[in-house]
Fold this sequence. Notes:
Structural class: alpha+beta
Number of domains: 2
Domain TLDc: 1-174
Radius of gyration: 28 Å
CATH class of the largest domain: Alpha Beta
Family: Belongs to the IFI44 family.
Protein name: TLDc domain-containing protein
Bound molecules: guanosine-5'-diphosphate, magnesium ion
Strand content: 15-25%
Number of helices: 12
CATH topology of the largest domain: Rossmann fold
Pfam families: TLD
Shape: elongated
Helix content: 25-40%
Amino acid sequence: MAELLTRKDKKQISQWIGRDSQFELLYKISRDGQSCKRFHELCDNIGPTVTIFYNKDNNVYGGYLSDSWESTGGWCTDLTAFLFKLHSAGNWKPVMFPYTSGETHFKADAYGPWFQSLPSFCSGFCKNKSAHGSYVLYTSSYFEGESFDMKGETVDSVANGHNNVTDLEVYLVRDDELESPWRDSQDWCSQTFQELKEFVANYEPLEEMKIPEVNILLIGQVGAGKSSFLNTINSIFKGGISSRACTGNNLTKSFEKFRVRDPSTKKYLCFRICDTRGVEEGLSIKNEDLGFILDGNLPNHYTFNPVEKASTKAPGFVKEPTVKDRMHVVVFVLDGSTLDVLSEGVVSKLKDFKSLVWFCKCDLLQSPGDLRCTPAFLTKMDKICETVNKDVSKMFTSSVVEDAVNKAADINAIPRSHVLPVKNYEKESQLKTDINILALTALRQALMFADDFLENQYELEQENSQTLNTRD
Ligand SMILES: Nc1nc2c(ncn2[C@@H]2O[C@H](COP(=O)(O)OP(=O)(O)O)[C@@H](O)[C@H]2O)c(=O)[nH]1
Ligand SMILES: [Mg+2]
């Protein structure tokens, strides 16, 4: 069942608590019932929690405890507890009511979450859900300023004078930063950066295939950060922030195969990053066009026609593409800050594209030699995690990022290890080693997947030529 607490609410509560936090829904009155027993089963002895009341007049308020709820105990004092309001009549008006003195909460098996001046329900006071769909909760000594500084607010300004809620949620509050990383990572030092840069700079496609470079196709929502990723890689090799591909409102309308040059050798690197029109509802790149791109039929700079699919008569259309023209790895670029609100249209488009990459036009699985890997780059991690925003090297110890990676893997139905979180250059004016390491790690992975494809192709060619020789 969906959580009601928004990302903005969570960020605000994190700030009040004083550290980056993650919120895990434990109890929800509309899901688990207005039951003291169920509340204690789900929330006892588990750690810090935040309880949120969703008042039926669109007021949202609640309380935070670092102390665990328990079934025995009576009145307790938690010096770090606080009450708060987040929304007043639907408007975002966050105010925190800090602890002053006295007891803060009541712990007993016959009581639900129960703060001094903010009670919920107890076994002698569990009213059935009203005909209007709200729960009538307890209101005695309600927001009276006992133990907490109400900063001039009253029961009327916080809760419109009543405690009838459409829902009530209790979240476990966890530290965002994990003690051990959720994915092994290299040291965030300049040596790691240099090694990765050398790997990419010295990369050459499988020799036997005799192709000058591999093609990495980026595909994803409009605004996901495809052009920014290309700019990030280009900046790394250029040694300063560059902006070759247009980003932001400038929609990519054509098929562009970018090369990156290493100024130290004055040579182009052996890959091309291919940028396409984005995936969007309605005006997305067409399945047929994508098919042509994958097979290598569309020329560089091909301008997509928003209403018609590409024609075989288009100038420069490659009628008989060879392996060098094809896309060797397809990277789904996903905006990590909008995973929760991805429209069904976009999700189904992404699924369509993934099956296109995996299945040939006649809907049969391609021969194993034709299988391409579809890793995902998960961008804008700095936007979903304050810890990462402050320090990109916390990427693999952030539980928020870990959750986003798991979600992206589910959406795209790919292994988690194929989801690579990145942070593109966007507001920075100087290069940063941590950002470089992440981007190059993602690129190295894409190059290795491209090599897998070439290996498969090579094996296939070998098998075919052996078959022909046997027939001869
Ligand atoms: N904060 C943040 N913003 C990003 C990141 N990547 C891209 N952006 C911004 O997102 C917007 C869209 O990016 P763009 O590369 O044009 O997306 P495209 O449509 O996929 O090519 C731009 O304003 C970028 O500056 C990132 O990792 N973090
Ligand atoms: Mg773009």
